[in-house]
Amino acid sequence: MTKQMKSKIIDAMDAAGYYFDELESTNDNLRFLGEGCQMLYMDSWKEAEEWLDGVVFDDPAVSDRVEKILHPEHFRKDRSSVLKRLEEKKQVLQDTGKPGSPAKKMVKADIDL
Q: Which letter, b or e, does each residue of 11-47 get, where b requires 16 or more Cβ atoms within 10 Å of its Cβ?
């Protein structure tokens, strides 16, 4: 396993709440420390990667953080779709300043109360 992939696994385990214990780990016995003195032992980097891919975390935010580290390609968006959404947001913001726009009416109504 490459050094880059090992680093990615360490980062993903960290995002999951388990910190790599460099001092007590060897290539065939990886040790990760969690909250409350919880320890995870893995026989290989591959096993750690498989565990991260297979585990279901209680907190969806933790799952998302781990997934973004291990599989960033799942979260990449097409540049043109991102630019289109930004243009749409820009247009909405510009429209809110025009007289008679729904957003301006809502703001005015809130002020009149």
A: ebbebbbbebeeeeeeeeebbbbeeeeeeeebeebee
CA separation for the pair 96, 105 (Å, rounded): 9
> Which helix (H) or strand (E) segment is 42 a member of?
strand 39-42
pLDDT tens digits, one per residue of 21-52: 999 999 889 999 998 889 999 999 999 999 99
Structural domain that includes position 89 = 79-112
Q: For the chain, how many structural domains are there in total?
A: 2
Residues paired with residue 41 on neighbouring β-strands, in sequence order: 31
Same domain, 18 and 67: yes
- Count of alpha carbons within 13 Å of 28, Cβ hemisphere only? 0
CB atoms within 10 A of CB 78: 8
- pTM given for the model: 0.63
Do 31 and 67 share a structural domain?
A: yes
- Of 5, 30, 35, 8, whose CA–CA distance to 20 is shortest? 30
